[in-house]
Amino acid sequence: MQTGKAEQTSPAAHSILAALRPGRLRIGARLTLSFIAIVLLMAAGYAIALWQFHELQLQQEALDRATRKSAAVLNLQSHLFAFRDRLEELSENHQGEQFVRDANLLREGMLSDIAGAKRALDEPPAGRERDSFVIVSLAAIESAVPVQVDAMADLAKAGDWPAIRLRSDHQLRQLNNITATLVNRVAAEVSAERTLVLKKTRQAEQWVAVSLLGAGSLTLLVAAALGVFVTRSITRPLGVLGRGAQALARGEFGYQVEVSGRDELGDLGRVFNRTASQLRELYANLQESEARFRSLIEHSSDFIFVIDHDGTVRYASPSSERALRLPLHNLTGRSIYDFIHQDDLPRARAALGRGAPDTIRTFEFRYGAAGGEVRTVEAVVTNLPQSSAMAGMVVNARDITERQLAQEELRRSEAFLAEGERLSHTGSWAWKPCNDEVTWSIEHHRIFGFELRKPSMEMFWERVHPEDRPRLRQALDKAIGEKGELELEFRIVLPDSSIRFVHTAGHAVVDGTGGLVELIGTTMDITERKRAEDALRQAHAEVAHVARAASMGELTASIAHEVSQPLTGIVVNATAGLRWLAAEPSNLEKVKENLERIARDGDRAGAVVTRIRAFFKKSAPKSERLDINETILEAVSLINGELRSKNITLDTRLAEGLPPVMGDRVQLQQVVLNLLVNGIEAMADTAGARILTVSTEREGPPDMIKVRVRDSGPGLDASIIRNLFDAFYTTKPAGMGMGLAICRSIIEAHRGRIGGFSNEGEGATFEFTLPAGDTGSMKLGSAP
Amino acid sequence: MMPDQPIVFVVDDDLSVREALCSLLESVGLRVAAFGSAQEFLSAEKPDAPACLILDLNLPGTNGLELQKELAAQAAPPIVFITGHGDIPSTVQAMKAGAIEFLSKPFREQDLLQAIEAALALDRIARTERSELEQLQKQYNLLTPREREVLPFVVAGFANKQTAGDLGTSEVTIGVHRGQIMRKMGARSLAELVRMADRLRIQAPGLPK
Fold first, then answer.
1. Distant-in-sequence, close-in-space partners of B39: CB < 8 Å, separation ≥ 6
2. Is the model's pLDDT at A146 over the cut of 70?
3. Residue B26 belongs to what domain range?
4. pLDDT-based confidence at A693, cuts 50/70/90?
5. Is the CB of A590 inside 8 Å of chain B's CB atoms?
6. From B26, which residue of chain A is nearest by alpha-carbon distance?
7. pLDDT value of residue B66
8. CB atoms < 10 A from the CB of A111, how many?
9. Are strands B101-104 and A437-440 parallel, antiparallel or unpaired?
10. Rounded-to-integer distance, Cα A263 and Cα A59, Å
């Protein structure tokens, strides 16, 4: 609309309007221009009006002047009348003196009036030529009056009254006439003048009205137009900004207003847009930061509360309610003291009480979690009363139940370890060979008979039995050299000269590069164990002896048979020999045969008896080189009778060329015998062939000799195999359950193994292995 | 050697005992044949003469008692058991089964020799009885099946009439059978026939229905 107007207007107006176009000019300038335009318009109106008023005033003054002129002339006329009348009056009274005085006064008055009239008429009448008559008349009057008066005064003095009267009549009348003409002339002049004035006045009044009205309405019109224009130029961008502001208020930080112009609103728009984008950026940053912090808080294993000084929870991080496992749905608004364990309340109150701002306090408290569980929390309290965001205590809490449990567990396990070391007489040690730094546990000190103090290798060697030192040093050197393991028994001598046996086991610790760091290990006081082992070994031997005796008891019949056979042979041979001797002639050849057999059978019986005595003899086990086949056959010889009486075929399959074994003959025979007797008993109810097979063979590596005893009985029930070798486990109604247990202890003492299983076909097999060769050591006797 | 000279069999797995026994028995003039096992003894050829068996109770393989059981079915010689460790059940079993003696090693030579003597004497009687029984059996074998049917009724003392009723024939026929039986068996009296039947272990017939 403006542009349209501008197009129609002149180039100057066009440029003005263009300047006024919204945005081109600043609002202040725009408003100022508008006001200046209005004021100018109004001033123009008022100027016209003032000019017209001035014109009116001029007319008024002209009117006044005319009036004054008229008045002066009239005044003069009236004074002239009055002068004449007075003079007549005075002349009638004939008072000379009086007359003179008054005549002078009158003359003065008249002259002043004439002067006044002259002054009034001095100015030329408006719009016309001065009437020369008036000037002449006035001059005549002025010159006539004093002459007359003086003349009359002289007459008066002379008392010539009639002259005076005459004079007055004549002279004065003339004056009057002149004056009357003057009055008329002036009146005509004034009247003309007045008419002109009135005309001009009316004209001026019209001008005033027109100018005032025109200026006023034009001003109003322009003001209205400017107002509308300026208002629009402000309100429209303002509306846009307002919508933007509302969008901002709604949180639409991405909102950008359309910016045009270089005015304040344009500036405002740009500022708005800049502000909005800064806000958006700020908000995005804030959101990101908020999200980050929220995420931190929500996913933190810590739980964060903000509480008032009275303990009311004003904020609880989402993680807290979940992680704290509180039986509450909403913590906010509740008092933190509601769920703190009452024993911990004083501590909590002290920590959460008022304190200096920004102080940080730490405390632990327990609370009842869901399900009646008591959990422990470690809380860090920061007092932030000044922080506008917090304005309270920030409690940063962490569930330390598991940690506490773990710590407790650790303490307990340490205590257990110490207690375990104490009870098991096991001390721990570590030794760094590089700097001879030695660490001992408490129990290690105790075992070695030292007070608790910084240990050293010197202290260690001081205690080691002199005879064991070389062996120990060698073992240590080997472990260091090979970065390997260490295990040996040695003796230590305590200050009271008592000897203790210790067993140490350790290994080298290497670093990443394979360098030796230290040796660590444990040392156990095995003195008691050794004593117990000795006692046990003794007991074992005794049990084995008892078992042997018992099995001898079981085999009495069989043994009797073994003895009675050669005895029978002896007796029968002896009687036969006697008969051959008594015959006629004596058959000495036969007698010799008989005697030879007697000797042979005697040896045989003696061997059996010797063997039996060995079985009954309670002797300490001894290790000797044995031919296992011979050892087995000797055992078998004791049960031949048993085999025959039970109708059992013995099949011996002994491998030839076996290496010797180290062991105790009697104990090994006891095992073989036990297995044979078991096999015999197993076949007691066997209807088919009763075959007992004894075999030996070589196995390995490691080089072992295996002895097998196989029967053709019913075999072993799967359920009993596991317990076969346990003590007091028996399937025999009258059994003690010691036989196989003793066998196992004997074989294991020989560093062998024993086992039993059911055969594929029928029967069961028991077998044991023994280390081959005469180097195998035995744990039979007490170690030196 | 005389065919009827008694012979002593020795079965013992123990060489000492075997050799000693042979020497002893030979010293008293007895014929001896020694075996190390039951199988050896069973498979050996044995002379037809009065004999006796000295048997070790505990033998590998077939033991003494089993051998005794096996021999019971045959015309085996009487047995003298010797054992290294005789237990009472074995002794009882051996004696019930007809052993002459049960000697525990070591035994006295007189006990053994007496037992052998008794055994040989018993074997002589047994051999006689065995030949008589063989004769009887031969005679019995001459009987017809019908006569063998009738024989139990006769020896059980049934009257001919009752027998005829039971067997569903006539009294006269039974009488004929009876005469034939007596003749073929060579029995001179009913009492003799009864003894013969007894030895032949002919059972009395079941009770009539």
1. B61, B62
2. yes
3. 7-129
4. very high
5. yes
6. A576
7. 85
8. 15
9. unpaired
10. 52
Helical spans, DSSP H, in A159-307: 161-167, 173-250, 264-299
What tokens does B162 get?
A: 């009752």
Cβ neighbours for A766, distance < 8 A, ≥ 6 positions apart: A675, A678, A679, A708, A709, A710, A754, A755, A756
User: Is residue B176 included in any domain, yes or no?
Assistant: yes
Q: How many CB atoms lie within 10 A of CB B173?
A: 15
Residue A643 contacts B where some CB pair is shorter than 8 Å: yes
Report the C-alpha dihedral over residues A19, A23, A25, A29, rounded to 10 degrees. 130
Q: How far is CA A454 from the centre of its chain?
A: 45
Alpha-helical (H) ranges within A300-317 are none
The one-letter amino acid at B31: R
- My answer on whether B123 and B151 are in the same domain is no
**Minimal-distance CA residue of chain B relative to A568:** B106
Per-residue pLDDT at A733: 58
The residue of A552, A556, A564, A572 whose CB has the most chain B CBs within 10 angstroms, and thus the best one to mutate to test that interface, is A572
Residue A64: per-residue pLDDT: 80
C-alpha A259/C-alpha A257 separation (Å) is: 6
Is it the case that residue A778 has pLDDT exceeding 70? Answer: no
- Give the pLDDT mean for B91-113: 85
Tell me how far apart the alpha carbons of residues A750 and A707 are, in angstroms, rounded to a whole number: 13
What's the Rg (C-alpha) of chain A?
78
d(CA A567, CA A337) in angstroms, rounded, equals 103
Q: In the listed set B72, B96, B129, which residue is the last one of a domain according to the structure?
A: B129
Asked if A601 is an interface residue toward chain B (Cβ–Cβ < 8 A), one would say: yes
What are φ and ψ of residue A391, in 5° steps?
50, 50
Edge-first strand listing for the sheet containing A485-493: A437-440, A426-432, A516-525, A499-510, A485-493
**If phi over 0 gives left and psi between -120 and 50 gives alpha, with beta otherwise, what is residue B29?**
left
pLDDT (tens digit per residue) in A704-762: 899 999 998 888 877 777 777 776 666 665 555 667 888 888 888 888 888 888 888 88
A546-605 residue pLDDT tens: 777 777 777 777 777 778 888 888 989 999 999 999 888 888 999 999 999 999 999 988
Name all contacts of A749-753 with Cβ < 8 Å and 24+ positions apart: A749/A540, A749/A621, A749/A667, A749/A778, A749/A779, A749/A780, A750/A661, A750/A662, A750/A663, A750/A664, A750/A667, A750/A668, A750/A776, A750/A778, A750/A780, A751/A776, A751/A777, A751/A778, A751/A779, A752/A704
Q: Which domains does chain A have, with CATH numbers?
A: 11-240 (no CATH), 300-399 (3.30.450.20), 408-525 (3.30.450.20), 535-771 (3.30.565.10)
Q: Cβ contacts (< 8 Å) between A577 and chain B: which residues?
A: 23
Contact B77, B122 (CB under 8 A): no
User: Per-residue pLDDT averaged across A614-631, rounded?
Assistant: 82
R_g (Cα) of chain B, nearest Å: 23
CA distances to A282, A391, A587, B94, B126 from A287, in Å: 8, 22, 135, 114, 130
Please choose, from the candidates A263, A262, A254, A258, the residue with its C-alpha nearest in 3D space to the C-alpha of residue A241.
A258
Out of B16, B27, B60, closest to residue A649 by CB = B60
Same domain, B117 and B150: no
Question: What's the mean pLDDT when you consider all of chain A?
Answer: 80
Note whether B49 and B103 are same-domain residues: yes
Question: What is the Cα–Cα distance from A544 to A530, expressed in whole angstroms?
Answer: 20
DSSP classification of residue A340: B
Exposed/middle/buried for residue A20 (C-beta within 10 Å: 0-12, 13-18, 19+): buried
pLDDT tens-digit series, residues B6-58: 899 999 888 888 999 999 999 888 889 999 888 899 898 888 888 999 998 87
Residue B186: left if φ>0, alpha if ψ -120 to 50, beta else—which one?
Answer: left
CB–CB contact A641 B58 (8 Å)? yes
Q: What is the ipTM of this complex?
A: 0.71
